[in-house]
Amino acid sequence: MAASTESTNLTNHFLIAMPGLQDATFAHSVVYLCEHSERGALGLMINKQTDIDMQDLFERVELSLGRKDLTRQPVLRGGPVQTERGFVLHDVMRPQVLESAHPVDTDVELDDPPTPYASTLSIPGGLEMTSSRDVLEALAHGSGPRRVMVMLGYAAWVGGQLESELADNAWLTVGADPDVIFDTPIAERYDRALALLGVNAWTLSPDAGRA
Predict the structure, then answer these.
(1) Is residue 97 over pLDDT 70?
(2) Are 57 and 139 contained in the same domain?
Protein backbone atom coordinates (compact mmCIF):
# COMPACT_ATOMS: atom_id res chain seq x y z
CA MET A 1 0.00 0.00 0.00
CA ALA A 2 1.16 3.52 -0.64
CA ALA A 3 1.68 5.69 2.38
CA SER A 4 -0.52 8.69 3.08
CA THR A 5 0.70 12.20 2.44
CA GLU A 6 0.12 13.27 6.06
CA SER A 7 2.36 12.55 9.05
CA THR A 8 3.58 9.21 7.69
CA ASN A 9 7.32 8.63 7.93
CA LEU A 10 8.42 7.41 4.50
CA THR A 11 11.97 6.50 5.52
CA ASN A 12 12.96 3.20 3.86
CA HIS A 13 10.31 3.66 1.17
CA PHE A 14 10.46 4.08 -2.58
CA LEU A 15 9.14 7.19 -4.27
CA ILE A 16 7.98 6.24 -7.78
CA ALA A 17 7.52 9.12 -10.22
CA MET A 18 4.06 9.40 -11.74
CA PRO A 19 3.83 10.03 -15.51
CA GLY A 20 2.77 13.61 -14.84
CA LEU A 21 6.09 14.39 -13.14
CA GLN A 22 7.93 16.06 -16.02
CA ASP A 23 10.92 17.40 -14.09
CA ALA A 24 14.02 16.55 -16.17
CA THR A 25 15.82 15.10 -13.16
CA PHE A 26 13.06 13.05 -11.61
CA ALA A 27 10.91 11.94 -14.54
CA HIS A 28 10.48 8.12 -14.55
CA SER A 29 12.63 7.88 -11.42
CA VAL A 30 12.59 5.66 -8.36
CA VAL A 31 13.98 7.28 -5.21
CA TYR A 32 15.00 5.40 -2.09
CA LEU A 33 14.21 7.61 0.90
CA CYS A 34 16.98 7.54 3.50
CA GLU A 35 15.42 10.14 5.79
CA HIS A 36 11.99 11.70 6.16
CA SER A 37 10.71 13.92 8.95
CA GLU A 38 8.90 17.19 9.47
CA ARG A 39 12.20 18.93 8.65
CA GLY A 40 12.31 17.44 5.14
CA ALA A 41 13.50 14.37 3.28
CA LEU A 42 16.67 12.96 1.71
CA GLY A 43 16.86 10.20 -0.87
CA LEU A 44 18.84 8.56 -3.64
CA MET A 45 17.59 7.78 -7.14
CA ILE A 46 18.23 4.12 -7.93
CA ASN A 47 17.47 3.94 -11.65
CA LYS A 48 19.37 6.81 -13.30
CA GLN A 49 22.72 5.75 -14.73
CA THR A 50 25.79 7.94 -15.26
CA ASP A 51 28.33 7.35 -18.04
CA ILE A 52 30.94 5.88 -15.68
CA ASP A 53 31.27 2.55 -13.91
CA MET A 54 32.92 1.57 -10.63
CA GLN A 55 36.30 0.98 -12.26
CA ASP A 56 36.24 4.52 -13.66
CA LEU A 57 35.20 5.96 -10.31
CA PHE A 58 37.99 4.24 -8.42
CA GLU A 59 40.56 5.46 -10.93
CA ARG A 60 39.30 9.00 -10.40
CA VAL A 61 39.75 8.76 -6.62
CA GLU A 62 43.17 7.06 -7.07
CA LEU A 63 42.18 3.69 -5.65
CA SER A 64 42.38 0.20 -7.15
CA LEU A 65 39.06 -1.62 -7.00
CA GLY A 66 39.66 -4.95 -5.30
CA ARG A 67 36.22 -6.38 -6.03
CA LYS A 68 35.99 -7.93 -9.49
CA ASP A 69 32.25 -8.39 -9.02
CA LEU A 70 31.86 -4.59 -9.00
CA THR A 71 34.22 -3.57 -11.81
CA ARG A 72 31.57 -2.88 -14.47
CA GLN A 73 28.74 -1.94 -12.13
CA PRO A 74 27.38 1.46 -13.22
CA VAL A 75 27.60 4.49 -10.97
CA LEU A 76 24.19 6.11 -10.61
CA ARG A 77 22.90 9.68 -10.47
CA GLY A 78 21.58 9.93 -6.96
CA GLY A 79 20.07 13.38 -7.34
CA PRO A 80 20.74 17.02 -8.18
CA VAL A 81 22.40 18.03 -4.88
CA GLN A 82 26.21 17.76 -4.46
CA THR A 83 26.62 15.88 -7.72
CA GLU A 84 30.41 15.70 -7.37
CA ARG A 85 30.12 13.79 -4.11
CA GLY A 86 29.71 10.03 -3.82
CA PHE A 87 27.15 8.27 -1.65
CA VAL A 88 27.32 4.51 -1.12
CA LEU A 89 24.08 2.68 -0.41
CA HIS A 90 24.80 -0.75 1.05
CA ASP A 91 23.77 -3.62 3.27
CA VAL A 92 24.09 -3.14 7.00
CA MET A 93 27.69 -3.81 7.96
CA ARG A 94 29.25 -5.17 11.15
CA PRO A 95 32.95 -5.21 12.08
CA GLN A 96 32.92 -9.04 12.16
CA VAL A 97 32.10 -9.33 8.45
CA LEU A 98 34.60 -6.83 7.06
CA GLU A 99 37.21 -9.39 6.10
CA SER A 100 35.27 -11.06 3.30
CA ALA A 101 33.79 -9.77 0.08
CA HIS A 102 31.00 -12.33 0.47
CA PRO A 103 30.66 -12.89 4.23
CA VAL A 104 28.93 -15.91 5.67
CA ASP A 105 26.51 -15.70 8.57
CA THR A 106 28.29 -14.40 11.65
CA ASP A 107 27.12 -14.09 15.23
CA VAL A 108 26.84 -10.42 16.12
CA GLU A 109 26.43 -9.10 19.64
CA LEU A 110 23.57 -6.68 20.13
CA ASP A 111 25.88 -4.00 21.53
CA ASP A 112 28.25 -4.06 18.55
CA PRO A 113 28.69 -0.72 16.76
CA PRO A 114 26.16 -0.48 13.90
CA THR A 115 28.75 0.39 11.25
CA PRO A 116 32.54 0.35 10.82
CA TYR A 117 32.62 3.53 8.71
CA ALA A 118 33.25 7.11 9.76
CA SER A 119 30.19 8.74 8.19
CA THR A 120 27.23 6.42 7.83
CA LEU A 121 23.51 7.02 8.07
CA SER A 122 21.74 3.90 9.35
CA ILE A 123 18.27 3.84 7.83
CA PRO A 124 15.74 2.42 10.32
CA GLY A 125 14.48 -0.92 9.09
CA GLY A 126 16.54 -0.63 5.93
CA LEU A 127 20.03 -0.14 4.58
CA GLU A 128 22.98 2.14 5.32
CA MET A 129 24.28 5.12 3.36
CA THR A 130 27.97 5.94 3.73
CA SER A 131 29.56 9.13 2.45
CA SER A 132 33.10 8.71 3.88
CA ARG A 133 36.05 7.47 1.81
CA ASP A 134 36.71 4.51 4.11
CA VAL A 135 33.97 2.41 2.50
CA LEU A 136 35.70 2.84 -0.87
CA GLU A 137 39.00 1.88 0.75
CA ALA A 138 37.38 -1.29 2.09
CA LEU A 139 36.20 -2.15 -1.43
CA ALA A 140 39.69 -1.39 -2.72
CA HIS A 141 40.99 -4.09 -0.37
CA GLY A 142 38.45 -6.61 -1.59
CA SER A 143 36.14 -6.38 1.41
CA GLY A 144 33.38 -3.95 2.35
CA PRO A 145 29.63 -4.50 2.09
CA ARG A 146 28.41 -7.51 0.12
CA ARG A 147 25.91 -5.42 -1.88
CA VAL A 148 26.68 -1.81 -2.76
CA MET A 149 25.37 0.87 -5.09
CA VAL A 150 27.31 4.11 -5.58
CA MET A 151 25.50 7.33 -6.44
CA LEU A 152 26.77 10.78 -7.33
CA GLY A 153 24.63 13.40 -5.62
CA TYR A 154 21.39 13.06 -3.70
CA ALA A 155 17.82 14.34 -3.70
CA ALA A 156 16.47 16.59 -0.95
CA TRP A 157 13.19 18.20 0.03
CA VAL A 158 12.63 20.92 2.64
CA GLY A 159 9.97 20.49 5.29
CA GLY A 160 6.53 20.06 3.75
CA GLN A 161 7.80 20.02 0.14
CA LEU A 162 7.57 16.28 -0.38
CA GLU A 163 4.14 16.18 1.26
CA SER A 164 3.00 18.87 -1.18
CA GLU A 165 4.31 16.86 -4.15
CA LEU A 166 2.54 13.76 -2.88
CA ALA A 167 -0.71 15.71 -2.57
CA ASP A 168 -0.24 16.81 -6.19
CA ASN A 169 0.03 13.14 -7.27
CA ALA A 170 3.66 13.51 -8.35
CA TRP A 171 4.73 10.29 -6.62
CA LEU A 172 3.56 6.86 -5.62
CA THR A 173 5.04 5.42 -2.43
CA VAL A 174 5.71 1.86 -1.33
CA GLY A 175 7.92 0.13 1.21
CA ALA A 176 11.39 -0.42 -0.23
CA ASP A 177 12.70 -3.81 -1.31
CA PRO A 178 16.52 -4.08 -1.33
CA ASP A 179 16.35 -6.66 -4.13
CA VAL A 180 15.02 -3.95 -6.46
CA ILE A 181 18.08 -1.82 -5.63
CA PHE A 182 20.79 -4.44 -5.79
CA ASP A 183 19.54 -7.41 -7.82
CA THR A 184 17.33 -5.87 -10.51
CA PRO A 185 18.74 -4.49 -13.80
CA ILE A 186 18.64 -0.69 -13.79
CA ALA A 187 16.25 -0.48 -16.73
CA GLU A 188 13.75 -2.72 -14.93
CA ARG A 189 13.73 -1.03 -11.52
CA TYR A 190 10.87 1.37 -12.27
CA ASP A 191 8.56 -1.46 -13.31
CA ARG A 192 9.72 -3.67 -10.44
CA ALA A 193 9.02 -0.90 -7.93
CA LEU A 194 5.54 -0.43 -9.40
CA ALA A 195 4.99 -4.17 -9.17
CA LEU A 196 5.36 -3.89 -5.39
CA LEU A 197 2.10 -1.93 -5.54
CA GLY A 198 0.52 -4.42 -7.93
CA VAL A 199 0.28 -1.91 -10.80
CA ASN A 200 1.82 -1.54 -14.25
CA ALA A 201 3.20 1.64 -15.81
CA TRP A 202 0.60 1.61 -18.61
CA THR A 203 -2.25 1.78 -16.09
CA LEU A 204 -1.02 5.07 -14.63
CA SER A 205 -2.15 8.51 -15.73
CA PRO A 206 -1.10 11.98 -14.55
CA ASP A 207 -4.50 12.41 -12.89
CA ALA A 208 -4.51 9.13 -11.00
CA GLY A 209 -4.39 9.09 -7.21
CA ARG A 210 -2.04 7.06 -5.06
CA ALA A 211 -2.58 3.33 -5.12
Answers:
(1) no
(2) yes
